[in-house]
Amino acid sequence: MSQAEGRWTTQQSNRSARLARVQAALGGALDGKVVQASHIVELLNAVLEPGDRVCLEGNNQKQADFLGKALTRVDTGRVHGLHMLLSVLSLPEHLDVFEKGIASKLDFSFSGPQAGRLAKLAQSGKLNIGAIHTYLELFARYFIDLTPRVSLVAAEMADRDGNLYTGPNTEDTPAIAEATAFKSGIVIAQVNQVVDKLPRIDIPGDWVGYVVQSPTPYYIEPLFTRDPAQISEIQVLMAMMAIKGIYAEYEIERLNHGIGFDTAAIELLLPTYAAELGLKGKIARHWALNPHPALIPAIEAGFVESVHSFGSELGMENYIRARPDVFFVGPDGSMRSNRAFCQAAGHYACDMFIGSTLQIDLQGNSSTATLGRIAGFGGAPNMGADARGRRHPSKAWLKAGQQAREGRNMIPRGQKLVVQMVETFREHMAPAFVEKLDAWQLAEQANMAIPPVMIYGDDVTHILTEEGIANLLLCRSDEEREQAIRGVAGYTPVGMGRDKRMVENLRDRGIIRRPEDLGIDKRRATRDLLAAKNMKGLVRASGGLYEPPKRFRNW
Amino acid sequence: METLNYRFDGGDRSLAGMPQLVGVVGSGNLEVLVEPAPLKGACEIEVRTAAVGFGATWQAVMADFHARWRLADARISINDMGATPAVVSLRLDQAVESLLPPASGGPA
Amino acid sequence: MSSYLELTARQRIPAVFDPGSFEEFLPPSARVASPHLAQLDSPVSFDDGVVVGRARLGGHTVFGAAQEGGFMGGAVGEVHGAKLVGMLRRAIDERAHAVLLLLESGGVRLHEANAGLIAVSEVMRAMLDVRAAGIPVIAVVGGANGCFGGMGIAARCANTVIMSEEGRLAMSGPEVIETASGVEEFDSRDRALVWRTTGGKHRYLLGDCQMLVADEAQAFRDAALAAIAAIRDPRLTLDELLAEQAMLTRRLDSTAGLQEPMDIWKGLGIDDPARVPMLDADAFLQLAAQHRAGVATGER
Amino acid sequence: MDWQTVAGQLFPQGHDIVEHDNFLSGSAQVAGQEVAIIGTTGHTPIGIEIALAQAKAVLTTVQQHPGRPILILVDTQGQRLRHRDEMLGINSYMAHLGKCIDLARRQGHTVIGLVYDQALSGGFITSGLIASACYALPQATIRVMGLPAMARITKVAEERLTELAKDNPVFAPGPENYLRMGGLHGIWADDLAGQLARALAQANQDDQRMALGQERGGRLLAQPVVDAIRTGSDVRPA
Q1: Is C185 on the interface with D (CB under 8 A)?
Q2: What is this structure's pTM?
Q3: Closest CA–CA distance from residue A220 to any residue of chain B (Å)
Q4: Which CATH superfamily is domain D3-137+188-206 in?
Q5: What pLDDT shows up at residue C298?
Q6: What beta strand segments (E) does A27-167 contain?
Q7: C36 to chain B: which residues are within 8 Å by CB?
């Protein structure tokens, strides 16, 4: 090889050197691409180099937990100062590597249960946060300036050639593997099983460096299962308001839901309340959504035409397999999810995002940040933002755009509906409406460049509380916006600080709509409106196909 | 625990029938006992709550309740375990609806 | 079709007894609440979590009680227990046709622990006094909080226990066992295991509950009517207790070494025990009819 | 106190009580009368086997020795906390034991409970607390659960509970408090043999514990509640 050629192939040469180190270190413990689980730490010691960018597949749901644990046991003399890339940092070992000095820098998206410890480590200086991203941003940076040298991913099965079957929980794997494999990086996959023939190939074997069968199946969390038994009468009322006051009003056909009980209540009211309003076939036909068990009754009632998913949900496998007209399934019958595509779909192809939050300020900024915790964002900001690049029209998009521009000298365009749905008080009487978000204080504490806002006020189009719906599209000044928000903030200090006359005026103009303005009889807001009242009801609705995880059963 | 007392005059709707209890003293919930009582036309409300320091909120919720129903000669007693105003209003309405004569209709 | 489990104690009364027939003893307006909770800064309830009174069921005078699982888990304190005892004694005074107890309780109320413990034993003795007076006692277990601790024992002092699959009848809650003996002993988060271990179907198969119904208020009412009608002599007899001794001994012997309820069901001759949990009440009763462990109680 | 010492003091003329896996059974003479003894020792948790063994002993006494008084010797740390016990229905085993004792009493057997060491929660309900009358030795431990565990479950600070326990029989462990509440008929400081003879002679078949609790000032509301219900009146607290 000439010197000139070598100048442009340093990454490839480096990759070859790593592979050779592995061959030398593992010898007989290596069977083609298949590594014995007992040699996993040796493999990592040989593959990794100090300062490597390492993507560890921690997804919203599935976790490369075996590889994550192995990474905490590497020889710190050889491997240190790693730059970790994680979309979801949710297992203790994800932070153990920082405590042990194996890694020092972190770029991530969501931290959930580890948020408190992450904040402490960041404060102690053992962990240096590059940035906190949304999922799409982080995936995007894998292809721009944060390309992994080594990726540790999880799949259900592999064959001896390294082909991977990710099954229903494909999630982030394609994005990670593609970014790594095509930039001379090395993909190492933990799999539940090594088999001779895969049900289907999700990741081609020539993208994959090594495969290891982990002693226990990868950890996976049922994040999207909401037991209908826990839905309150207030949530039923809010779901009625959402359906009648927003879904019907804008004829929303393409949408994404958050994961809370509020939106589960809407899903369970589609076959009852929405059907009664004659909305079947007119609303909620196409979804970017994980396979929510609460959506089963609506699917069975024929409301839902298609669902594309970020990931799967435990227990839904057989139901999905039996409904290929609705879900995206492979020739083998199991679903294929893809977080990157679904996030893009949610951003560009949906007319509405509706979800709950913890705090909303007077500008409509909405945040789930809590003091002492660095929780990150996940995917909500991509869903809950106007897609300013969008050009294709739909009724809902056009109507929202028209409401926002009416009476102003602006060129016509549409707008995405972004609805924040929240009870005025959370548990323990914590008000959902505040003058100033906790995010400001958190930003100061953790030295962040900007307060961690989940959804920016200028993207929020509607705020829905048990008190009413505030349509921010129709507000014509900052003052009107503020009073519209105060007007649905109920008995919170923010709500009680409203200008009563102005709020009544906003109500006359339809900017604030109370349940009675929508023609909703509050006495009908009982749990009897739910298409399924408990987990067993969901199983029944699925014809016995849905098998809830054991922690959700009371039978 | 905190005890709060409110009294509203000027109501004009009287209750009929036996005292009614609705709701349960469980987390985020409350029980509301509504009874007809000779109170010279007033509506008296006593709240015993586990959530201390929300007097102003209760005052506002109760004032709206009175404006909505305009009860006269009524005693309302509440045991609360941190219910939100939405739940409080819902239980109050349920309790009153169970005690108003059928012909008297809904809230004003 | 209304779920019994979702109803409050106060809503269960008119759903199970003849509508409009219930006369409550010491109703909420009497404000006989616990005298012990205030000092612990804990809210009281005007009925101390139990509704007691006299009603009609199928036209007969039947005394009854309903525990409110939403208030302190239905736990028994001084007043709560005394209301039950008072109702049971008055049932004897007035020669009631039967007593129907809608139970939902975690057992002794720890906020007034000593009073609660004694009270539960008083309830048990009063129930047995009622039976000794020739009055049937029926216990219903179908609430979300189950029937645990001392009230789990008390339930089994009734002539007949009626459960839904969702009801749970046991002594110590899974969380208590997990805390004391570790998650390997009993994983309280494995709710399917919790229900296999303590739920209505398992209790029915073992013979600890005599009637199993779907989670519907009407089904409980119908079962209560049938149970009362079936009892010829509600009094406790030596023969009944000898039979129960034999049944409980058989149970111990035939389950030696078993750790999993499904293995017990298999031992009872159910070929595919894994499908038992998903069967609805009718299908389950059909299956169980051939396999249920022998029962010896007052109604036979 | 170990059971041999207690038995020695209760039955100075001798007894034939034997211990088998913490289960006690036997008989002895009290004031010229044969008495059956059933009980537990070693703070043993009450599991399904030992509940069943006690029940069997009671039933055997009822069958073979009609009318013979029964003394229940109580020493237990409470119900056994095991999955298998719950799976097999420990509540039914305990209820069965309780019903056997109840039947014996109704058939003319005077049943006396004696807490000679420890009586906790579920283990006590179907032993001492279902007897015609229950007594305790002064140094016995009687409680539902310890204050630290109670603090965890009730979410009341342990210091506060300890403070309240000083003069409030409702929380505080110990025989004195159970005596005040009527849960115990008496505490036997000495002359156990004489105390037992008197207890057997005085035993009453009716449940008088509420009245005792009211008389002794430890449980003021229970009896008035029962009276109000039976007379169809309102409660007039004492």
Answers
A1: yes
A2: 0.93
A3: 31
A4: 2-enoyl-CoA Hydratase; Chain A, domain 1 (3.90.226.10)
A5: 35
A6: 30-31, 34-35, 53-56, 62-63, 82-88, 103-110, 128-132, 150-158, 164-165
A7: none
